[in-house]
C-alpha cells in the first residue's frame, strides 16, 4: 500500500488479516469507526478519506491485538447494551444481546403490574441489567450486588455516567441485603460448566472473568440452586424473579425453582433464536 491509506484500503487489509486469524471481519469496521470517532452513518461516508498516520498506526495495533484474542470491547473500552454505551474491562462480563432479551422481558412483564417496584440484580458485573432497568422504569428502586469490588467500580462508573440511581453493594448474592424482600429479583449468574468453559474461544476464556462465567464443574446450575433456596424469604409473595440460563438448562433450572417454590408458576422462555434463555418465576398462588 502507499503511504496515503484510505479508509476502504485499511478495511480491506484488516478484514483479510482477521479472516486469516479466524476472527470476525466486522471487527475491522468497529475498530476503525472507534478510532475515527464518528457515528456509523458518517463512517460509511468516509470510505475514500485518507487516514492520518496516527489513526492508521493505532488501528493496525488494535487489529493485530484482536487477532491474538483480545476482545474488541476491551480494545475500545465499551459495548452498547439496550441502546446505551457501557464501559467494560476484563473485570466484568461483556454485555450480550441475549441479556438484552432478559431485560426486555422483565420490563414487559412488569409494565401493567407495578410501575415502582423494588428490584434486586444479583451479580451485576458492568451494571448493564440494573442500570437499564432503573432508566427504563424511572420509579423503580434498584439495588445491585456483586462479589467483585473491581466489577463494582466499573458498574458505578456506568451508573454515574448514564445518570441512573442504582444502589450498589458488595457481597455474595443475598448477603448484603439480608432480611429484605423484593418485588423483582433478576440475575444472569455464572452458568457455564467448567468443562465447557475450557473449550471456549480465547476471547472469552482468557479475557473475561471466570468468576462471572463458570457455574460449577458439572451442569453449571449451582448458582440457581443457591438462589432458589433463598427465594422463599427474599421474594415477596406478589413478586417475580427472572434468570438468564444456558440454552440447555431450561428444564433443570425450572425444576430447581419449582422444588423450592412449590406455590409458584415457573416457565421457560425462548430467545430470538428459539433457544431456552429465560426462566421466570411468577407470584405465589393461593
TrEMBL record:
Its EC number is 2.1.1.297. One of its GO terms (biological process) is methylation. This is Release factor glutamine methyltransferase. Residues 108-196 form the Methyltransferase small domain. Substrate binds at residues 188-191. The keyword S-adenosyl-L-methionine applies. S-adenosyl-L-methionine binds at residues 123-127, 146, 188. InterPro entries: DNA_methylase_N6_adenine_CS (IPR002052), HemK-like (IPR004556), N5-glutamine_MTase (IPR050320), PrmC_N (IPR040758), RF_methyltr_PrmC (IPR019874), SAM-dependent_MTases_sf (IPR029063), Small_mtfrase_dom (IPR007848).
